[in-house]
Structures are given as structure tokens and as C-alpha cells.
């Protein structure tokens, strides 16, 4: 297969090491976290402008989207939820939701990665040696438990036992099963409903010379890739019995750096993109593990420390972020068009989603107006009766209760007289 991503734009907002990037599901927004302690959200369709940002007391280290909410993990182990893209038409409601910061959990170590299942009701979080499991109840997220830590295996160099670090956790098709990657200890397959590892060791055989940086699961849950800090990109096939290593794509980084590099599946699982310490992100085809394109991000010594991917309508988007210390960092957006935008037609599902969104906004506004009317009727019942009683009776074609009024010549009151009566009633209420 061929890959033809071209540069779409550059974002210069981060002023320090870019730790993580994440596109919203529709590809409209991009979130970034960096060592300048700021979480930012950019509008891709509006010249990459910053539409929301939040500065914290420590660097945010992980970020992901779910149901329009932004989940952020930081160096202190805090898991926080924001709502930066509120679509309410009422300004003060929108600004209030954007400023809301909901603390979900406090972990014991920095948060490395986060991943939701496809249903969006379960979350895996890697923090130091621990993998934390969360479930959604109603609209709140609740911590369930830590996964049992793995028993180290393999040989040690000079008999030193390396520290256990969880670098990635991925749900499989069965939402009760997941695969966990560890820096020195390979992969473990875990069964959530029985709370035990189904396999003791997968993948690496030597703890000293093979290290898993970051990993990614294919959309069909049949394979997984991992950046090997010493050898490049390792490809594995997931089988019920074991994790079978298929090949290694050579992207060896300079031993002086030895940093974990990000990797993602892209193009419907037909390719992967991997960060490097050589100034570019490398795209590999899945079938043979062959490199098919290099996305030139910066100089030859630039580290690509963050990646994001989204597919929306007629195009695919990749975001690359760098982390060279002592230099101004940037984010580069890459785009691959899937067809002629002038001939692009909305899919039926997209049309249905748009109509549903419009109906939701209109319905919400109607409910707000009804609520305001109810409050007015509750606080000022006499005024409401004088003002709205005749109108409601007339609307439903009902006659007003007859009163014994002395027979006088019929005189139709003017509009001015009606207004005076209403103002007089209002004055009596306020007196």
C-alpha cells in the first residue's frame, strides 16, 4: 500500500516537551499536554487556534477523549476530567462547563497512558508499576481496583532487578480481557472478571536488552505492536495460546537517548506510525512491516515524543509532537485526503447525527425557557395570572368565568388601558 500524508499546518503553542496528543473522535479538535504545565485544545478547522487551555501545578502527561470530555493524567498521579468543547448556545452555561475541573482519582505515581474500551464504559490507566481499572456508573467514573503486579521473569544483567513499569494496557474484543505491556517484563494477558493473568509471560525473553516503550493494539484485536527501545518496532500476533512475535522493523534509536517512543495503528489498521529520535515519524505497512513514508517533523536530532490519529469523513489526520529539551517545541498536523472534497457526500449516519444534535440543542433551549416560565409563575403567581390567564384561555378556546357585572355600555378597552392595568397589578405586587 502507498501512503501520501502531507503537512497541513504547524502549531507553536507548546513551549516545552510535548508529552501527549489526542484527537477528538470527529477529528475537529486536538488536545496537547506538555511540560509547561498546560493542557490545550486546538480547533483544527479554525487555523489551529487555541480554544481552551488550563494551567496546572505540574506537567500533564497523558490525555484522551471520551463523549466530548477530556481526560487528563499528570505527573502527580491525578486523573481529571474537563469539558472544553461545550456546545451550549447560552454563554454562561458554556463557560461554566469549560471551567469545571472534576478530580476522578489520585494515583501513587505519574500516569503514563490511558485507554477506554469501545463501549466507553471502562478505562485502563497505567501509573508506575500499577494498572488501574475504572468503570462508569451513570455519569460518574469509579475506581475498581489495581491489577496484580506481575512476577518478573527473564535474565538480569549483573543480577540487578529492574523496576517494574507498566507502559500500556489495551482492551481486546472481549471487554473482560486485556493485554498489558511492561517495560522489562514483556506482555501479560489479563482476565478482568476472574481478576487473574491468563498468561504468565509473553513477548520479551531478556530483561536487560529488550525494553517495551509504548504499544498499540490493532482495531480487530488480532495483533499488537511495541516500540523496542533497543531494536525498533516489534510486531506480534495475538492468539489464544500466546503472543507470537512476527517481525521487527529496524528503527534503532541512539543509545544516548533511550527514551520510550509512541506508536499507533492508522489507516483502519493497515499501517502504523512510530515516533523516532531522528526528526521524523515513520509509517510502516502492517503486512510486511516495511517503511512506506517518513513524516519530516524537525532536525535530525529531534525526538518525536507524541502522536495522535483521527479519521473523519474524507481525510485522515496525524499529529506529531516533539520533546527536545532546551528547544522550542512544536506540533505538526499531517493530512491524507481520501477523495475529492468537492464531490464528497455526507454519509447517512453523519446526517442522522447532525439532525440529532440540532434536535438536542433546540429541545434543550425549549426546556430552559419552560423552566424560566415555571420560576416566574412560582415567584409571581398573581402577575402570571393577570398576564397569561386570559391568553391561555383564549388559546384553548375556553370561555372566561362569567362575573356579575352591572350592565353598562360595552366599551372595548384600548391597548394603552390594558398596559396600565398590567402595570398597576405589577405595582401592587412590588408594594
Automatic annotation (TrEMBL):
WD repeats: 11-44
Protein name: WD40-repeat-containing domain protein
Superkingdom classification of source: Eukaryota
InterPro entries: WD40/YVTN_repeat-like_dom_sf, WD40_repeat_dom_sf, WD40_rpt
Presence of the UniProt keyword Nucleotide-binding in the record: no
Pfam families membership: WD40
Transmembrane stretches, start-end: 366-384
Keyword terms of this UniProt record: Membrane, Transmembrane, Transmembrane helix, WD repeat
SMART domains reported for this sequence: WD40 (SM00320)
Amino acid at each position: 500500500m502507498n501512503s501520501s500524508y502531507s503537512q497541513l499546518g504547524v502549531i507553536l503553542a507548546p513551549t516545552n516537551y510535548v508529552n501527549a496528543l489526542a484527537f477528538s473522535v470527529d477529528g475537529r479538535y486536538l488536545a496537547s499536554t506538555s511540560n509547561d504545565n498546560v493542557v490545550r485544545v486546538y480547533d483544527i478547522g479554525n487555523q489551529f487556534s487555541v480554544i481552551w487551555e488550563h494551567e496546572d501545578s505540574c506537567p500533564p502527561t497523558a490525555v484522551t477523549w471520551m463523549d466530548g470530555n477530556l481526560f487528563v493524567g499528570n505527573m502527580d498521579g491525578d486523573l481529571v476530567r474537563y469539558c472544553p468543547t461545550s456546545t451550549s448556545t447560552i454563554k454562561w452555561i458554556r463557560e461554566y462547563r469549560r471551567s469545571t475541573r472534576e478530580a476522578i482519582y489520585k494515583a501513587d505515581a505519574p500516569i503514563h497512558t490511558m485507554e477506554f474500551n469501545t463501549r466507553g464504559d471502562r478505562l485502563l490507566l497505567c501509573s508506575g508499576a500499577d494498572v488501574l481499572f475504572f468503570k462508569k456508573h451513570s455519569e460518574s467514573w469509579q475506581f475498581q481496583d489495581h491489577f496484580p503486579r506481575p512476577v518478573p521473569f527473564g535474565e538480569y544483567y549483573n543480577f540487578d532487578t529492574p523496576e517494574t513499569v507498566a507502559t500500556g494496557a489495551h482492551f481486546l474484543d472481549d471487554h473482560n480481557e486485556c493485554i498489558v505491556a511492561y517495560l522489562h517484563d514483556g506482555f501479560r494477558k489479563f482476565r478482568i472478571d476472574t481478576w487473574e493473568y491468563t498468561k504468565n509471560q509473553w513477548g520479551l525473553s531478556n530483561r536487560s536488552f529488550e525494553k517495551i516503550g509504548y504499544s498499540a493494539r490493532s482495531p480487530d484485536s488480532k495483533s499488537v505492536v511495541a516500540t523496542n527501545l533497543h531494536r525498533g518496532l516489534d510486531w506480534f500476533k495475538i492468539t489464544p495460546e500466546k503472543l507470537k512475535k512476527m517481525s521487527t522493523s529496524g528503527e534503532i534509536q541512539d543509545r544516548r537517548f533511550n527514551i520510550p517512543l509512541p506508536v499507533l495503528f492508522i489507516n483502519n489498521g493497515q499501517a502504523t506510525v512510530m515516533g523516532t529520535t531522528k526528526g521524523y515519524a515513520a509509517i510502516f505497512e502492517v503486512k510486511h512491516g516495511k517503511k512506506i513514508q517518513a513524516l519530516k517533523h524537525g532536525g535530525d536530532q529531534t525526538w518525536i515524543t507524541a502522536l495522535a490519529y483521527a479519521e473523519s469523513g474524507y481525510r485522515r489526520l496525524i499529529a506529531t509532537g516533539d520533546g527536545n529539551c532546551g528547544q522550542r517545541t512544536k506540533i505538526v498536523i499531517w493530512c491524507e485526503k481520501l477523495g475529492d472534497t468537492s464531490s464528497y457526500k455526507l454519509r447517512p449516519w453523519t446526517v442522522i447525527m447532525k439532525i440529532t444534535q440540532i434536535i438536542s440543542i433546540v429541545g434543550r433551549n425549549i426546556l430552559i425557557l419552560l423552566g424560566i416560565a415555571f420560576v416566574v409563575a412560582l415567584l409571581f403567581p398573581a402577575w402570571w395570572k393577570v398576564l397569561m390567564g386570559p391568553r391561555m384561555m383564549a388559546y384553548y378556546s375556553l370561555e372566561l368565568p362569567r362575573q356579575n357585572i352591572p350592565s353598562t355600555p360595552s366599551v372595548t378597552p384600548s391597548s394603552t388601558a390594558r398596559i396600565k392595568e398590567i402595570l398597576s397589578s405589577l405595582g401592587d405586587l412590588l408594594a
